[in-house]
Amino acid sequence: MQFISDPPTESEALDAYSQAVTSVAERLAPSVASVKVSRRVRGGRRLDGGGSAVVITPDGFLLTSAHVVARTDGSGRAAFTDGHEAEFEVIGSDPLSDLAVLRLDSNGLTAARLGDAEHLRVGQLVVAIGSPLGFGGSVTAGVVSALGRSLPVPAGRLVENVIQTDAALNPGNSGGALADAAAHVVGINTAVAGQGLGLAVPIDEATRKIVGALMTEGRFRRAYIGIAGGSRPLPPRVASRLGRSTAIEVVEVVDGSPAQNAGLRPEDLIVEVDSIVVEQVNDLQRLMAGELIGRSATLQVIRGGRSISVEIVPAELEVG
């Protein structure tokens, strides 16, 4: 007996999930490069390493992870899926957000479209494209496993609102794209936190400001007041009066810092900065933008159950 059947059409061969993933791969793969760098190590030797990067402008700007290009001589080589290769220069790096911007001497590149991670939802499809273990143009897919995670970086700070995904990531994916089903880049893959657990720095308003500063100035400036602290519940009477439950407790004041000069003390509770409510340390970190450097700011502080105003002039945070 002979069975006769027509071959399946493309739409029949691919289910909706597969169509979404293949569409993202086709649209975004030309915008993701494999990057190779040489690192300086002890004894004067050099160690080859690499990662991935995402084209963000047609005239040669690429976005990657700061740790991919850390401790290098500021240059390297990028390779694309179509075989094109070019030398790049690191024009700006921000270890505190784990982001860096590269510049290729190339025009007519295919720039990725940047999305907005603030619209992501847990369970949403995401696609990762990068160069795990040096295999350029590799595609994996998964979902947004969680939002709002924090990622410690070597510079001694937390990157906030990190995206957690179960899309498979491996060494070399760092600096590559995490995209939604519309092929908008919503994150820059940055870490493999465990089996089935990857993390990406979100593309949002704060990230765009950092990237813009790296492209134009080569760095992103942050303000610094010089305290160590943590979130603490407000005393019941104060909480009732203010209509909120938590504040930032000053645990330690750094010698010679703006905080010491302003008279802040351990056990002070910071509740506002220039009339903006702060309840967590990351609230304060977000407000420490370059615009505050050298400018007087007003802290609303609870000290001994009383509310006082403290004038402080933040300095520039120096990143070693």
Number of domains: 3
**Treating each run of at least 4 consecutive H or I residues as one helix, how many helices?**
6
Radius of gyration: 23 Å
The chain-level structural class is alpha+beta
What's the architecture of the largest domain in CATH terms?
Beta Barrel
User: How far apart lie the N and C ends?
Assistant: 77 Å
Q: Which stretches are low in confidence, meaning pLDDT under 50 for 5 or more residues running?
A: none
The helicity comes to 10-25%
- Write down the overall mean pLDDT: 89
Provide the CATH topology of the largest domain: Thrombin, subunit H
Query: What spatial order of strands do you see in the largest sheet?
Result: 1-2-3-6-5-4
DSSP E strands, number: 21
Fraction of residues in β-strands: 35-45%
CATH first level of the largest domain? Mainly Beta
CATH superfamily of the largest domain: Trypsin-like serine proteases
Can you write the helix and strand succession as a string?
A: HHEEEEEEEEEEEEEHEEHEHEEHEEE
What spatial form do the alpha-carbon principal axes imply? globular
Report on this structure.
- This protein has 3 domains: 12-104, Thrombin, subunit H (Beta Barrel), CATH 2.40.10.10; 113-214, Thrombin, subunit H; 223-316, Pdz3 Domain.
- 15% of the residues lie in helices and 43% in strands.
- The protein has 320 residues and is an alpha+beta fold.
- The protein has a 6-stranded antiparallel barrel with strand order 1-2-3-6-5-4. The protein has a 6-stranded antiparallel β-barrel with strand order 8-9-10-13-12-11.
- A hairpin with a 4-residue loop joins β5 (85-94) and β6 (99-104).
- The N and C termini lie far apart (77 Å).
- The mean pLDDT is 89.
- The protein is globular, with a radius of gyration of 23 Å.
- The chain contains 6 helices and 21 strands.
